[in-house]
Amino acid sequence: MSAAIAVDGLCKTYRSGLFRNKTVEALRGIDLTVGRGHVFGLLGPNGAGKTTLVKILLGIVHPTAGDAHLFDVPATRAEARTRVGYLPEKHTFPGLLTATQMLDLYGRMGRVSTAERATRIPELLEKVGLSAQADRKINTFSKGMLQRVGIAQALLNNPDLLFLDEPTDGVDPVGRRDIRDLLVWLRDEGTTIFINSHLLSEVEKVCGEVAIMNEGELVRQGGIGQLTSVEREYRITCTPLPDSLPGAAASQMMRVDEAPAPELEQWRVAAETRTDLNALLDTLRSHNVELEAVEPVRRSLEDYFIDVVSPPSA
User: Fold this and answer.
1) Is 128 in the same domain as 47?
2) In sequence order, what are the residues at sequence separation of 6 or more whose Cβ sits closer than 8 angstroms to the Cβ of residue 92?
3) Does the residue 220 lie in any domain?
């Protein structure tokens, strides 16, 4: 099965200056693949090239070099966008229209049939929690409500690939959870979702894979768990360690202050190999220590992101 997004050697150079004699390399040889049915996050500081990449994928900007395909169709062709839904970051909708009227207008512009609009618009308003506001004018909506109706707009044509730019920006915690649940439902239905966001805690909760851009280059890509795991460190939750535990084993373990229950302790362990980790666990069991959980130590996606994009200290 082909990828939803395939980017190969993508470059984009802009010319500036009075005589257009200055150049800015917005993208420098980007290679990127996003599989179908995945929720993918694109991260990067301001000026990293994220917006330029998304514009090329949407056919708004043409690359200087390289290729971009959506479902094997060149992104430069209008055909590629018939399977795409898009919510930009700074979107505006006609304020004097109601939510239903606005969606009907955008559906007509997107060539969604009259019969499909009649059934799909109420369904989408219900999905994004705006059924009660269907006949309310857009100019009375809060920022969170605008985000919700914007997502409904992006789903009007029942897209196979959904681009969302800061989808939870300005949305309260309950609304963010509702949007996450909607994205998970869409993923389970087979929709590929491409999220561009600065809210890394939200990305971490919903994306299976992310890519990090910096200064026009793709510097990291991988699964959330893969990128945030701390190499060779584990967290062990267990019953209290006995005094009889050998010193060699005890010296490998560092107590963590917080434990999930009063009768349990949590320890941080460094183990060079899987064999070393299992040897330690065998020692604990042989001294009647009951194991509740053994899990790799992970840092937050935000911490990892900052480490990747921050310049090295002098």
Assistant:
1) yes
2) none
3) no
